[in-house]
Design goal:
Layout (H helix, E strand, L loop, with lengths): L1 H8 L3 H28 L4 H13 L3 H10 L3 H12 L4 H20 L4 H30 L5 H54 L1
Helix pairs in contact: 1-8, 2-7, 2-8, 3-4, 4-5, 5-6, 5-8, 6-8, 7-8
Length: 203
């Protein structure tokens, strides 16, 4: 920790500041996407579909429609579009599903593509800090008096290690979280397509 503080307060603080800023932005995006994808969009999907299927099998289409309309998830909006437009014909229901999907899919995927970019920029900033530290170290060896070289060399090496560590420490969790969020996002979209077809078949 003391080494990190030294790197942040020393000559490499610019790169450290950028990396930490990128980490905070990534953390905010991850938190917002986690809440939307895992809590708001994914919660209660299985129970919702069981209730809809039970109502449709009992011929209670209006109740199923009201249940879908009362939910705020992307899956419920897709099912509501099917139930509301199926009486108009298969083609009308499919068009309504496509329209809702084109609205909901970007909401699910929003900001996800930023996470790999932020992770890569953090790693590149860590690399820049590493190169900067190496420049200081080589400059110390080449130009400073012998008595001052050990301290200057140690300072340059500390900048190298701290920036490399911080860049990787930010980038690796961000990429991992992006993978988890992207996987759940894809699963939600596939489920929206699958369940809309199943509801059409039940009708």
């Amino acid at each position: 920790m003391s080494l990190l503080l030294k790197g942040f307060n020393g000559e490499g603080r610019f790169y450290m500041s950028v990396i930490l800023f990128l980490g905070l932005v990534s953390l905010a995006i991850i938190a917002e996407r986690f809440i939307y994808i895992f809590l708001k969009s994914s919660k209660g999907r299985a129970e919702f579909m069981r209730n809809v299927a039970k109502l449709l099998q009992g011929g209670r289409v209006d109740e199923a429609n009201r249940l879908a309309a009362s939910q705020g998830t992307p899956l419920a909006r897709i099912i509501a579009a099917v139930l509301q437009n199926k009486p108009k014909g298969q083609a009308a229901a499919e068009r309504a599903v496509d329209e809702v999907f084109l609205t909901e899919a970007p909401r699910i995927n929003r900001y996800l593509n930023l996470l790999p970019a932020l992770a890569n920029i953090a790693m590149l900033c860590g690399l820049l800090g590493t190169i900067f530290g190496l420049i200081l170290a080589f400059d110390a060896v080449a130009n400073l008096p012998a008595a001052q070289r050990p301290a200057a060399l140690a300072n340059g090496i500390s900048i190298v290690m701290v920036n490399t560590f911080t860049g990787l420490a930010v980038a690796i969790p961000v990429l991992l979280c992006h993978g988890l969020l992207a996987m759940q996002s894809e699963r939600l979209q596939e489920e929206m397509e699958e369940k809309s077809v199943k509801v059409m078949n039940l009708l």
